[in-house]
Design a protein that fits this description.
GST_C, transferase activity, 6 helices, about 160 residues, Glutathione-S-Trfase_C_sf, Glutathione S-transferase Yfyf (Class Pi), Chain A, domain 2, mainly alpha, transferase
């Protein structure tokens, strides 16, 4: 999603990001990191006691697999639709259908696991949380009641103060 003149986006964030797309991580020494894999890497090294990319080789593979799945099946259609929300096209209808399938598949996954990649909160959960937040708030995609596992997971995570800081 383009930052452009979005409300709540401060000037340093806009100036720091090359393509004006979130996220941007500002470090205390003035360093700016504006690439998702680089941010994950920094957080992983700076806070090893709370790994977002997995603790074991198996966990790391599962986090990478689920994060990639969320990105390709959920986030990509959201970004494509959000970029053209002022000038919808036939492709947007297809992307909205992809999101419907994504949410149903996500519900199946979260019916079998506490978090995207298993028992621990991970980068895959953050990617999915952002995907659903943008889909529902920006694009108006509904989160149907029958998606109980997604709703439990999404509302449980999104009400935590740490989700949006």
């Amino acid at each position: 999603m383009e930052l452009g003149d979005a409300p709540g986006v401060n000037a340093p964030a806009k100036a720091a990001r090359h393509g004006q797309t979130p996220p941007v991580l500002f470090l205390g020494d003035g360093t700016v990191i504006d690439d998702v894999p680089a941010i994950w890497r920094y957080l992983e090294e700076a806070y090893p006691e709370r790994p977002l990319l997995g603790a074991t080789p198996k966990d790391k593979a599962l986090v990478a697999m689920w994060d990639r799945w969320v990105e390709t099946e959920g986030l990509n259609p959201v970004k494509a639709t959000a970029a053209r929300r002022d000038q919808p096209t036939a492709l947007d209808a297809r992307n909205r259908q992809r999101l419907t399938h994504f949410l149903a598949d996500l519900d199946s996954r979260l019916s079998a696991a506490v978090y995207m990649a298993g028992d621990a909160f991970s980068a895959a959960d953050i990617t999915a949380l952002i995907t659903i937040d943008v889909a529902t708030r920006t694009l108006g995609v509904p989160l149907p009641r029958e998606l109980g596992a997604v709703r439990r997971w999404f509302y449980g995570l999104s009400t935590r103060a740490s989700a949006w800081t």
